[in-house]
Amino acid sequence: MQARVCRVCDTVAVTLGAIYGPMTLLVIAGSVRLCVTGGSDGARARGCGGEFLRRGPRECGSVASVTPWECAARDAAVPVQPGGVSKPQALQAPVANFFVSSQIQVIKIETEDNRETRSAKDALLLWCQMKTAGYPEVNIQNFTTSWRDGLAFNALIHRHRPDLVDFSKLTKSNANYNLQRAFRTAEQHLGLARLLDPEDVNMEAPDEKSIITYVVSFYHYFSKMKALAVEGKRIGKVLDQVLEVGKIIERYEELAAELLAWIRRTVGLISNQKFANSLSGVQQQLQAFTAYCTLEKPVKFQEKGNLEVLLFSVQSKLRACNRRLFVPREGCGIWDIDKAWGELEKAEHEREAALRAELIRQEKLELLAQRFDHKVAMRESWLNENQRLVSQDNFGYELPAVEAAMKKHEAIEADIAAYEERVQGVAELAQALAAEGYYDIRRVAAQRDSVLRQWALLTGLVGARRTRLEQNLALQKVFQEMVYMVDWMEEMQAQLLSRECGQHLVEADDLLQKHGLLEGDIAAQSERVEGLNAAALRFSQLQGYQPCDPQVICNRVNHVHGCLAELQEQAARRRAELEASRSLWALLQELEEAESWARDKERLLEAAGGGGAAGAAGGAHDLSSTARLLAQHKILQGELGGRRALLQQALRCGEELAAAGGAVGPGAETMQLVGLAERAASARRRWQRLEEAAARRERRLQEARALHQFGADLDGLLDWLRDAYRLAAAGDFGHDEASSRRLARQHRALTGEVEAHRGPVSGLRRQLASLGGASGAGPLVVALQVRVVEAEQLFAEVTEVAALRRQWLRDALAVYRMFGEVHACELWIGEKEQWLLSMRVPDSLDDVEVVQHRFESLDQEMNSLMGRVLDVNQTVQELVEGGHPSSDEVRSCQDHLNSRWNRIVELVEQRKEEMSAVLLVENHVLEVAEVRTQVREKRRAVESAPRACGALQWRLSGLEAALQALEPRQAALLEEAALLAARFPTQAARLHQGAEELGAEWGALASAAQACGEAVAAAGRLQRFLHDLDAFLDWLVRAQEAAGGSEGPLPNSLEEADALLARHAALKEEVDQREEDYARIVAASEALLASDGAELGPGLALDEWLPHLELGWHKLLGLWEARREALVQAHIYQLFLRDLRQALAVLRNQEMALSGAELPGTVESVEEALKQHRDFLTTMELSQQKMQVAVQAAEGLLRQGNIYGAQAQEAVTRLLEKCIPPHPCCLHPPWELPELPRSSS
After folding, report:
1. Are 390 and 344 part of one and the same domain?
2. Is residue 294 in a domain?
3. DSSP string for 187-243
4. In what residue span(s) does the Calponin-homology (CH) domain sit (predicted)?
């Protein structure tokens, strides 16, 4: 047995090759529909295709309509009965055996217990038992009697198609009905040929092989139904995968675009760093941002993950189907989404950080504001209370009370002073809020100003109260002091009433000293009294607040002033008495002492002077002894001065006392002033002689000291001049520059000292003349004159020698300096000359840069050295012009240095030129290599770019920008190569080679760019074609689904049929409009095949795809025609059903009228009933016409081959049976009309 599947109508052709020749069975869904023998009939059967399926086995005109029984009878030469069905008894045994064996030879079932493979018959029996297991009253043990009641056939159908049979309504006693129902259901709904009749089975001994043959058709149908269902599922799965992939791609692009738009919109929103200037506003913004992060963003993140899953699913499905992988359009790829998501997360991080910082700032501001409000409330309360407190002036009228009030006020002030920091804290808080930009800063500023105003008011009140309190306290203290002073003055007046004046000087001094103490106290207290009075009077002159009545103050001041005046008057009288007594006794004692001291000093001066010129100096032999005698004489003069003032004062007092005469003080012992004037005159004469002797001795000592001092100074000057002459006349001028410089520095110091002594030496004669004029030409003066002349001569010699040595040292220093500079310069020149001569010009650019850096440092050193060479030349010029004895040697050294300097300069310039050449060439070669590398990378990038249109377009745009940037640089390099080759001929070959290589790479890049442009154009054309082709294929699939052919849903009402016909006509219009697109796509595909043979997808060439496209287009047209035919037939059938329903409604009304009529009881009622019956008969004749119309419509449906013809015929039959009294054996109500199936069989 061989099986083939028809690709047009999906029929299964099973060929049986046996002894009896070829026989073809066309099987649809597992049921045998046609058996044809012979080659020509088989060909006709295979060529009928869908025509056979649409018209059924008995209507197809292209093949012979036979049954398997007829086929078998024909091959066995057995006559077939009319009607196409042969009875089992008419079959010959060989024919039956052959057909049964050919039908069941493939049935093999393995049992579950022993896994034994049974024979075909046993396997079929076991299959039937397995399928009917569990059904009541169904027990299949054989293929004869177990099938007589028909329940087994219905059980098999119900097992596989429970929608066709209601098994619960079947009974075992109604065998014919069960068999008829099973056979009709199998024929109408399963397409199985009706090989048996109920009479063939419901008998004593049914034919086993006939039942086996019919049961085998059930087996094959259900087996093929399962296989075809699996195949259909596979094909549908493939189509569903294609459609699903398309939908997923559309869904991906839509979701990607939405997600990217949302990301850009969200980034724009959260990038705004403007925040609300309040805590609630920032909290709301943070809550919104948190809600976004916890609600909106997770959804979008899940969408992003879903997008990745979608893309992976699409790629996996395309890869599984061996189709071209999906490339998202530019800007919608996963990498673009990840990049945008990264920007979003960055913006979120910045937004969150800014929001957190702003929230912290606002929270701090809010806490500051709360602290400010709390402190303002506390400060205002405290200020109000203290203002009320300091406004009260209950100080009291006594000093203790005022002091207590003062202490209380000081406590208040201390409290207020301590509170100042808190008030300033309020101002600082307000300033901090203002600096941070607090939103309610106006209110804060107003409260701060209010607190500051109240604070200023409080401090003013406190100050004013303290002023008043201090005034009261000061006034009370003044009053208290006044009381103390009055008491003290009364005590002092009692002491001043004593009359004792003393009997000698000591006692008089003691009394006077005690009285002086009293007067000091009185004077001090009088100042204090005056101060108290003035202070008290100031309180009486105050404007405004007055701590006391001014009259009371004036009365107290007058009282204290009177007491003080009385006390002072008593003290003055007492002092006058005591002083008069002391003056008398003191005068007498002083005169006596002065006269005695004058006699002693006069004898001493006469003994020290001796008299004559020899003792003029009085023992002054040198400067030290003269100084000692002068110091002793100054002491004596000091004593003379002190005694002189005392003596004169005593003399005046004596004269006053003598002039006054009489007694000293009232009530004292009387004392006469006898001999007071003689004693005073004697003391005066004695003192005059003493002063004359002291003056003579002082003059002689001064002259001796001046001469001795001049001699000592002259000796020191001579010693210094001798030392200076020895230094100036030294022959050491140094052995090098350092020693010469040191000697010159020492000589400059010596010259300065000589010049400093010029003035003193020239003034020696004048000084000696002034000193020796008064003493005459003594031996000391003559010796001094000789020494002055010696000093002048020695000073002239020192000056001359110092000038000569200065010039010699200057010349030596210049020569040594010049030689040192020349030596240092020649050392440096020799070192650099050796390096330059041994230096090899490097070849690599790195070495050239290193050497160039060394040349830069060499330039700096040469600039410094050139200055030193110029200094040497200038020094030599000065020495030559000055007539230096070594001028020839100096000039030769200069010439040698200049020649070496010129050589090193020329050598440096030569090496620089060589380095510059190498550097220019190497830089040019390096830049050429860099540009060549860039050009090569661009060319390779273009050549290795993917062939996708988007990638090529992106690569081409980047290449054009790169070409625009590189082209000027390439032209400049070529021009620079020509110039360098002309300038440096030795490097010309290398430069030309680099230029040629760069030109070759540039040409290759231009060719690659041109090829890329052509590929972009071709890819664009192909992309547009593929886009149009995909769109057309999508539409074609949707159109085929909409067309649906004859398998689409059929209408259940006339209105639905009209709507489906209108929708089908609109589809036809759309197909006609798409015909031009189809032609354009075919023409474009032929052009692409003629140009480059591009492929639509992996493994499927364009030339292989076009036949499928053409087949799909023609299939769409065929489906539309088939669907139109089915809809037209369904519309006609719905019209028939409408008429049939009307006829049934009329019959139902007539039946109700007949069943509800009662026999009349009177003549009138009988006549009325007869009249109504005649009217009823008339109505029946009219309804008979409607029924006739329905019958004719059913016959027309059968004649036209309508798919609903058999149903219409059956419905008409039932309608006619309703008109005729139904047979008692009828099991179904004749008025039930069959429902229109939703899909064709």
Report:
1. no
2. yes
3. HHHS-------HHHHSSSS--HHHHHHHHHHHHHHHHHHHHHHHHHHHHHHHHHHHH
4. 118-223
This model's pTM is above 0.70: no
Dihedral sign for Cα 38, 43, 44, 45, please.
Answer: positive
How does pLDDT run across 78-134, given as a tens digit for each residue?
Answer: 333 333 333 333 333 444 444 444 455 545 554 544 444 557 888 899 999 999 998
Query: Do 1045 and 1132 have their domain in common?
Result: yes
Mark whether 522 and 671 lie in a shared domain: yes
CA distance 963 to 1081: 37
- Report the run of H or E that residue 93 belongs to, with start and end: helix 93-104
Q: What are phi and psi of 841, to 5 degrees?
A: -65, 120
Q: Hey, is 80 helix, strand or coil?
A: coil
Helix (H, G, I), strand (E, B) or coil at 52: helix
Of the candidates 799, 810, 798, 815, the residue with the CA atom closest to the CA atom of residue 743 = 810
Higher-pLDDT residue of 176 and 834 is 176
How many domains are contained in the chain? 5
Written as six digits, the tokens of 950 are 């988007």
Q: How far apart are CA 1190 and CA 81, in angstroms?
A: 34
Cα–Cα separations (whole angstroms), residue 689 to 386, 589, 649, 682, 979: 87, 21, 19, 11, 123
**Other CB atoms closer than 10 Å to residue 156's CB: what's the count?**
25
Q: The domain containing residue 538 runs over which residues?
A: 498-608+622-713
Considering all CA atoms of the chain, what is the largest pairwise distance in Å, rounded to the nearest integer?
Answer: 222
Question: Where are the alpha helices (H) located in 439-504, listed in sequence order?
Answer: 441-495
Tell me, yes or no, whether 461 and 517 share the same domain. no
Identify whether the C-beta of residue 379 lies closer than 8 Å to the C-beta of residue 451: yes
Considering only CA atoms, which of 180, 185, 191, 138 is closest in space to residue 162? 185
Contact in structure between 355 and 285 (CB atoms under 8 Å): yes
Instruction: Specify if 866 maps to a domain.
Output: no
- Alpha-carbon distance of 857 to 855, in angstroms, equals 5
197 φ, ψ (degrees, to nearest 5): -115, 160
Task: Tally Cβ neighbours within 10 Å of residue 165.
Answer: 22
Q: Report the distance separating Cα 1047 and Cα 1049, nearest Å.
A: 7
Instruction: Say if residue 649 is in the same domain as residue 509.
Output: yes
E-only strand ranges, 927-1039: none
Residue 498 · residue 512 · CB < 8 Å: no
Find where tokens 């202490």 sit.
407
Give 622-644 as a 3 state SS string. Answer: CHHHHHHHHHHHHHHHHHHHHHH
Residue 1047 lies in a domain: yes
Sequence-distant (6+) residues with CB within 8 A of 1078 are 1032, 1113
Question: Do residues 363 and 379 share a domain?
Answer: no
**In the block, residue with structure tokens 């101002």:** 427
| DSSP per-residue codes, 279-348 | HHHHHHHHHHHHHIIIIIHHHHHHHHHHHHHHHHHHHHHHHHTT-PPP-PPTT-SHHHHHHHHHHHHHHH
Sequence-distant (6+) residues with CB within 8 A of 1110 are: 1082
Mean pLDDT (whole number) for 1093-1121: 69
- Residues 221, 353, single domain; the answer is no
Final residue of a domain: which of 349, 367, 385? 367
Rounded to an integer, what distance in angstroms lies between the CA atom of residue 868 and that of residue 871? 5
Task: Please report how many Cα atoms fall inside a 13 Å half-sphere around the Cα of residue 423, on the Cβ side.
Answer: 22
Q: Which residue has the tokens 């020329």?
A: 906
Element (H, E) at 75: helix 68-75
Please name the helix (run of DSSP H) or strand (run of DSSP E) that holds residue 796, with its range, or none: helix 779-838
Examine the domain organization and report whether 221 and 108 are in the same domain.
yes
CA angle 834, 840, 846 (to 5 degrees): 120
Judge whether 1043 lies within some domain: yes
Give per-residue pLDDT as tens, 887-922: 787 788 888 888 888 888 888 887 777 777 777 787
- According to the model, what pLDDT value does residue 1220 have? 52
